[in-house]
Amino acid sequence: MTGSYLFRLLCLSMASFFLVHLALAAALSLLAPAAIRLSERLRPQLAARLLLLLRLAPTGLSLLMVAGLLAPSYLWLEPRGAPEPIGWACLAAAALGLAVWSLSIARTLRAAGRSLRHIRRCQRTARKTYLRGETAPVWLMEGPAPLVMLAGVLHSHLVISRRVVSALSGDQLAAVLRHERAHSRSRDNFKRLLVLMAPGILPFFHGFSRLEQAWARVTEWAADDFAVAGDTHRSLTLAAALVRVARLGKVPAPPVLVTSLMPNGVDLSARVDRLLHFVPTPSKPGGVARLLSGGAGLLLGASVVALMAQPVALHTAHEFLEALIR
After folding, report:
1. Other CB atoms within 10 Å distance of the CB of residue 129
2. What is the spatial distance between Cα 121 and Cα 118, in angstroms, rounded to a whole number?
3. By residue range, what is the domain housing residue 204?
4. Domain total for the chain?
5. In a domain, 208, yes or no
6. 35 pLDDT exceeds 50?
7. Were 14 and a residue from 94, 121, 255, 261 both cysteine, which residue would form a disulfide, CB within 3.0 to 4.6 Å?
8. What's the sign of the alpha-carbon dihedral 142, 143, 146, 151?
9. pLDDT of 49-59, one tens digit each?
10. Beta-bridge mates of residue 138
11. Contact 164, 251 (CB under 8 A)
12. Residue 297 covered by a domain
């Protein structure tokens, strides 16, 4: 494989990703308002999965198209002969694709660095202890800031300030801890990492902010529901705890990969109102949602494999690449 052959492959792959991703993102931008309205009528856990799937769909489908169809068609059908010139349109699309990936990678590394520094600072200043009724340890912080947050992506740690522990009653503290344990159970910090890694539509134009804000909102609702566990008394207790922590003072903005009890951009009054008017609903097994999402993933993977096995699909993909490179 010569260098020029490899360069054309890389250029076509990046340009193809950008164009496919742009088309899918444009379609998603049209569907996003309706999806957000639908998420407000669904159970928060299901709504969070739906919005996360929509946010990651353009990136995932674009990567599948490039890696599963376009790149194999080039490797199978493109002759390894004389170098073929690359048109300016292809170069421009490849440059834009490289730019959106570079920005997303830089954003992810910056957020991971801040999260790591935050965890190390907590390790230096916090004291690991066990609170009453809790089987897992927490990091107890000194200082005036009313901190309640979950730090760490793969191995999460619950961080709470002594001021919050002193201000809350036993039931309120238990509700707050259950809320944060819900974030740990659903691996929300890892999901935040995936959202950060997913490129925006164009360089310096993200385009997915409303969808991400809606996902953050329903994620908090889902954690509230887990903490409440269908109990009206627990719902009132958690609402009182949120109000009491909010009155302790302003919470410093946490790193992006740290989940806070009081996240920026999420309407606290809406959460409290929702908890005050909580209506118990029969819990439904989460296995159905996992089965449906897993089945959708298997169906998508099988579709890509079926496309790869069809010579006509590879020929059509190669024709697209030939038109793109000119």
Report:
1. 13
2. 5
3. 3-288+302-325
4. 1
5. yes
6. yes
7. 94
8. negative
9. 999 999 999 99
10. 129
11. no
12. no
